[in-house]
Amino acid sequence: MDEPISLTEARQEMVDSQIINRGISDERVLNVIRDVPRHIFVQESDINNAYSDHPLPIGQGQTISQPYIVALMTSLLNLTGDEKVLEIGTGSGYQTAILASLAKEVHSIERIEPLLHFAENNLHKLGLKNIHLHIGDGSLGWPDAAPYDRILITAAAPEISKDLLRQLNITGRIVCPLGGRWRQTLEVWVKEKKGLKKEKILPVVFVPLRGAHGWQDL
Ligand code: SAH
Q1: Which residue, by CA, sits nearest to atom 2 of ligand 1?
Q2: Does residue 218 lie within any of the structural domains?
């Protein structure tokens, strides 16, 4: 895709200074982030900030996550290319594009219709064929395409529901910001034959997950 050289350079610089410098070394993840044009997933007025080290507004009170956090969550998913992935919180579609470049199939759910259209339009420009976008309450998962090998929640969840866990394969993993309304911990849960293995990664701040198993409107 043709793009101004300044944006290509900003993207490469972002990967070096924000992502590799903070310890992410998975080459597959790094290569995809070097390739995917993040600037097509932000608002037009923010194109020149698309590669900055922070989240950005995408309308409807929602945000596209900080590049480092997208890289970290993606690497925590341990994708090999064969997986069916569920993403909860499509937002801009940027994380969806990253997942689709590293997995077999991605289902992504968004509850705000104008954002789903925004994502659809953004993703269309990349021509990725293995993405299925859905409108609905992702806190319930998306049973129609279950089971999944990976589940990524890109909004702050107070809990991971049994509904969602049922939609995950054994040995599958969930990456999710879990905790309070204003502060969470990024966690990785791996589903084992008996029970779950849980690991806390680092403190994060995400917009709230809404819906049946999310935060109720204030
Ligand atoms: N992955 C996105 C981040 C978007 S922010 C990106 O790369 O741009 C989180 C998104 O989760 C918001 O768009 C919000 O509307 C959505 N969301 C919140 N609760 C949800 C729910 N219950 N189901 C589906 N989407 C939800």
Answers
A1: 91
A2: no
Which residue is it, tokens 């995950």? 168
* 33 within some domain: no
Nearest-atom number in ligand 1 for the CA of 138 is 23
* Tens-digit pLDDT profile for residues 13-28: 999 999 999 999 999 9
Query: What is the rounded average pLDDT of the residues 87-100?
Result: 98
Is residue 65 annotated as part of the catalytic site, yes or no?
A: yes
**154 falls within a domain:** yes
50: helix, strand or coil: coil
* Token pair of 91 as six digits: 């937002």
Please identify which of the residues 65, 101, 108, 139 carries the catalytic annotation: 65
Amino acid 1: pLDDT: 64
Domain residue limits at 126: 53-204
Cis before 57? omega within 30: no
CATH code where residue 190 lies = 3.40.50.150
Q: Which of the four pLDDT bands, split at 50, 70 and 90, describes residue 45? A: very high
Neighbours of 192 (CB within 10 A): 11
Which ligand 1 atom is nearest residue 58's CA? 8
Pocket test residue of 77, 90, 140 for ligand 1, highest count of atoms within 8 A of CB = 90
Ligand 1 near 50 CB (within 6 A): no
What count of residues does the chain have? 218
pLDDT score recorded for residue 218? 59
Tally of structural domains, the chain: 1
User: Is 136 a domain residue?
Assistant: yes
Mean residue pLDDT across the chain: 97
